[in-house]
């Protein structure tokens, strides 16, 4: 009789364990895709696909660091549901503009709102001199960086 009771308890425990494990909710691939897209959403050039918990990233970025950060972000979107991340992102560096004539014309336009600044172009390097307010130096730097020169030299700038 004790054997039957023990067997019944063991069988009941097994059934409850299996039932509990099978009832745990699994994250669907569609939901997982949304989580990963949110995690890597800062880059519109990256596509996310999910199949049976395997995340595949594809698209283009400009640096190895950006590629690595996107992969890490994807992995951390849901540590339990993601089985693995396949990183098929291709690195395509930004082409540097070394055409002095073209770059000089674009520099004139980029610095038109900075009357106390003078910029020259030589072999793809923009050298800037003059004075700029602290609140506007970042705007100037971003405008010039967007022209894709070899370098922007702001060492001749006085910030006030």
UniProtKB/TrEMBL annotation:
Coiled coil: none annotated. Pfam families: BON. InterPro entries: BON_dom. Gene3D superfamilies: 3.40.1520.20. It comes from the Bacteria. Residues 22-93 form the BON domain. This is BON domain-containing protein.
């Amino acid at each position: 009789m004790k054997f039957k009771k023990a067997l019944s308890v063991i069988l009941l425990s097994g059934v409850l364990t299996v039932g509990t494990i099978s009832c745990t909710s699994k994250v669907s691939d569609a939901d997982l895709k949304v989580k990963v897209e949110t995690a890597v959403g800062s880059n519109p050039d990256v596509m996310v696909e999910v199949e049976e918990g395997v995340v595949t990233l594809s698209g283009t970025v400009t640096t190895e660091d950006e590629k690595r950060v996107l992969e890490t972000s994807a992995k951390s979107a849901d540590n339990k549901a993601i089985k693995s991340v396949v990183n098929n992102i291709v690195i395509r560096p930004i082409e540097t503009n070394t055409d002095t004539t073209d770059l000089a014309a674009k520099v004139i336009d980029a610095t038109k709102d900075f009357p106390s600044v003078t910029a020259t172009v030589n072999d793809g390097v923009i050298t800037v001199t003059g004075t700029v307010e602290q609140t506007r130096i970042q705007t100037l730097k971003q405008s010039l960086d967007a022209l894709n020169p070899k370098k922007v030299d702001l060492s001749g700038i006085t910030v006030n």
